[in-house]
Design a protein that fits this description.
Tetracycline Repressor, domain 2; mainly alpha
Length: 227
């Protein structure tokens, strides 16, 4: 390769690096605005102003506002997927609670982001201009279930978890995490100074939830009807 070709390749890589950095800046600006404001009030103009760039520059990266919104959703789900993948390796090395811990930590470390992604999902479910991105989002979401399901099946077989259909376990994880997120925004209980510690406590409960013996013990203690 000639010196000219090397210089040209370096310039291309540098331009791509600048382009991707600016794209991340746009996404971060949009995220900050969306967490603090109503989705309808966050316009491309506001995002551009927050990012410190021109509105036209935003459109070099995203053709529509929906593309920015779905990018936030995808980034969030990809982070969860990466953490679950890493946790699966930890579980295979002898830490049976690693996967469920990764799931709870991923969702509860930033409840406001988790809640925003749910709102965006509800809003964009039928958007025609981002169908491929929504399909990718669904694929990643299913991969979470697969990661949890495969480990749950293994732990059931080893006698660590209750022998019930695997989806009982991962839907219970979802329900606990969902309730914890909603708790953060509850008018009666959400305004607490110790919320991060509370989320950590809920996560620790989630890790041991469904362990062998819990379900039947609860069943045995249920009052029985007498004739």
């Amino acid at each position: 390769m000639t010196q000219g070709n090397i210089s040209s390749s370096n310039r291309i890589r540098e331009k791509k690096k600048v382009f991707l950095a600016r794209e991340e800046k746009i996404v971060r600006a949009a995220l900050e605005l969306l967490i603090g404001e109503n989705i309808d009030r966050v316009t491309v103009s506001k995002i551009a102003s927050k990012a410190g760039i021109g509105k036209g520059t935003v459109y070099k990266h995203f053709l529509t506002k929906n593309e920015i919104l779905v990018r936030i959703m995808l980034d969030y789900e990809r982070r969860i997927a990466r953490r679950l993948s890493e946790a699966l390796k930890e579980a295979e090395s002898g830490d049976p609670g690693a996967v469920s811990k990764a799931y709870f930590d991923s969702r509860l470390e930033r409840p406001e982001l988790d809640r925003l992604v749910q709102k965006l999902e509800d809003r964009l479910v039928d958007a025609d201009d981002i169908k491929p991105q929504l399909a990718e989002f669904s694929r990643i979401r299913r991969s979470h279930e697969d990661a949890l399901g495969s480990m749950i099946t293994k732990l059931i077989g080893e006698g660590i978890l209750e022998d019930v259909p695997p989806h009982y376990h991962y839907l219970s994880c979802w329900a606990l995490a969902q309730g914890a997120v909603e708790l953060c925004f509850n008018k009666s209980w959400g305004d607490r100074e110790d919320t991060p510690e509370l989320m950590g406590f809920i996560s620790s409960i989630g890790v041991t939830m469904g362990n062998r013996g819990q379900y039947h013990q609860a069943g045995d203690s249920t009052p029985k009807l007498t004739k």
